[in-house]
Amino acid sequence: MSYVFAAAEQAHADVVPHVRAINMTPADGDSIQNTHASAVLHRRARIEAEIARLNQTILDLKSELNTLAPISALPPEILAKIFIACVDEPESGFTRGRCARIRLTHVCSHWRSVALQSSALWTDLALPAAPALVQEFLARSKSLPLRLYVYSEDYHFSLDGSIASMFQDCHPSLYESMASILKEMPMSRIRTIRMKAVSPASSRRLYDNLDGPAPLLESVELDNRTPYQSITATSSGLPLPPFMHNGHPERLRRLVLKHHPFRWIDIASYSLGHLTISCNLTPAGKGNHMQDFLHAIESMPLLETLDMENAIPSLPSSMTELPRPTSIIPLTRLHSMRLSDISSSNCANILNHFSFPALSTLNLSVRMESELFAEKLAGCLREKVPFWDKVRTLKCSMSEWSFPSLQMQTSPSDCSGAPHAPGCKLDFELTDELIILGPWILSTMCREIPWKQVQTLQVSGLSLMSVNGWIAAFEGMEHVTVLNITGDGGVRHLIDALGHFTPVSGTSTLFGTPVQDTVSMKLFPRLRVITLEGVRIADDATFDEGGVGEVTDKLLNCIMMRYECGVEIHTLRITRCINIDKDDIAKLDEVMPGVDWDAYVYAEEPEYEYERSGDEDSYSAYYDSDYDESFVPDDDSIY
């Protein structure tokens, strides 16, 4: 019986819910669902609120942690200066990633506050960029002077002209956007302008949108070129930007023109302190007269730095004498001058017309077209350069590429390396276009220029110098105490020349030979230190046979001769020389104990010629085993 009652109760329990569901109205169902949904939403809201509270707690803790960092101890003014120093280089719209200045504001709330309050951090405007970004920079910089950097889009892609053209075709609105920004640019706030483009058309489109007076303008750099394509005279019709003509900015201190045509009468400015002109394949001097150039430079009495490459009006090629200057133009503040890609006649003519009493750095790259003008140039250098008595170190080297080139460099250091007159520096590169003047040019430059105070002389690559050539070139350098010889160029003739002496009076016997009582060495009577670096001490055959090197024999004779003449060599240093061993050092130690040798033994291996065969392994001697021909650099490597 109990079993029957239990079954009935179970059936009742199963049926009742279904009956209730059948009899339930729609309003009752919605009420239940709404109650459930409300509970879920309430629960979610409580969870989200808790998450927000915890996140805020984490942020507060991180902020407190940041205050304990060492950099947070800096005053905001110092931190702002650090920010400015870190992002000093301008960024264009093509820079990968976000602008560094923007990234600074996303580090922490303190940095953001400092960055936003530092108006000087936002004074650099680089185009192309989004107009909204430019407007934000203008607002954050408040009323401070601005630096404007403008790059045409094809300048960034100038590696391949087709890429530049394709980019311009795909983005026709880019120039329109830049033009719109430039038209609204507050020229009255611009202090610096740097503009780069690869064609006259690009430059002109940029220039046309920058008009109006620029009273604060101090620095202008105009670069109209592509580094990878030749420059032609097609840019000759490109004028200077309008802002250069609007009253000639009175505060303009720096002007740089690269591959940009100009007229000297258009750039004369009383306030200029730095002038750089580089024209390369487009001689800007063409069409300008020498008098225009002289008048322009004369109108720049505040000039401190002058850097010109292929930018000076040339003398007629038929001229055989330098024109006599009617007056000498004093450049009393000029301390640094560079003249590059200029003939010796034009260089001498320029030096003839000016005086530089404050000059401390001179860099010349000169084409030597004749003996006459080489002598004229040496004479002008002797008369015009004011710091010859301060030069303590002279480096002379010769290189031979398409034309022999003589390099002469100076520095104001004595033999101990201590600076004597900081800032005085000379760098010559004299190219022998006749291919026969090399030794003669060196002899002329050394003879005509007063190098009497030089104490350290470094020579390399002077292979064309004979014994008499060495003596003729360097006999006037009586104060040389240190001689550094690098490479094989003329070293044997130089060592022979070091042993030559001049009789003075009386007679005695030297090595069994009657000589004068008093003698004077023709070269470097005060020489005490000789350094040989990378010199071939012995011929290959001599070294293979175990003989004493030819240079060693000459050194022995030179050292003994100078010792007997009372001008003893105190130190001989031998560094990384070729075909030398302990036998050479032992011989030298006999006449001058304590030779300073690095014990570097190097004998040149004979050169082998590999003939091409069907076996590719025969070329293994030419290649590094780690070289992988299948390697292709990723995209980042080209930037």
UniProtKB/TrEMBL annotation:
It comes from the Eukaryota. It holds the Pfam family F-box-like. It comes from Wolfiporia cocos (strain MD-104) (Brown rot fungus). Residues 608-639 are annotated as: Disordered. SUPFAM superfamilies: RNI-like. Residues 71-126 form the F-box domain. This is F-box domain-containing protein. Residues 625-639 have a biased composition (Acidic residues).
